Amino acid sequence: GAIDASAGFFPKSLVRLLELAGKTRPTEAEARERRELQYKVSCMEEIVIKHGIVGIKEATSRLRGFGDADGSRLPLYGTIQGGENEWKNWEGVLAALEEVEKRL
Fold it and tell me: What pTM was estimated for this model as a whole?
């Protein structure tokens, strides 16, 4: 199992990946879906790696509409470094997974 911070903003996608990972004999379609979803999740995880708790809080606020984008506690107060320009760098990666999330 795993405790994944990004499950707060892409819960259905992470659950689906876990379901696919548990299949010992996936069909070709399931294996392909698993690879594609794992790639998208891995790319998205970079925001957590780069921005830590601040990135998690901001992504949850922006993508799911709960919490505050700058809701971190001291000494981590504020939004991601680089502000709107940095967030725009992640839009393509996040949009790819958002498509999956909406479909599930």
Answer: 0.86
Averaged over successive runs of 10 residues, the pLDDT of the chain (104 residues) comes to 77 95 97 97 92 89 85 76 93 96 96
CB-count exposure of residue 5 (10 Å: 0-12, 13-18, 19+)? middle
The dihedral sign for the CA sequence 65, 70, 75, 76? positive
**Domain limits of the chain?**
5-103
d(CA 30, CA 21): 10
Three-class secondary structure of residue 41 per DSSP = helix
Q: Which residue has the tokens 């725009």?
A: 88
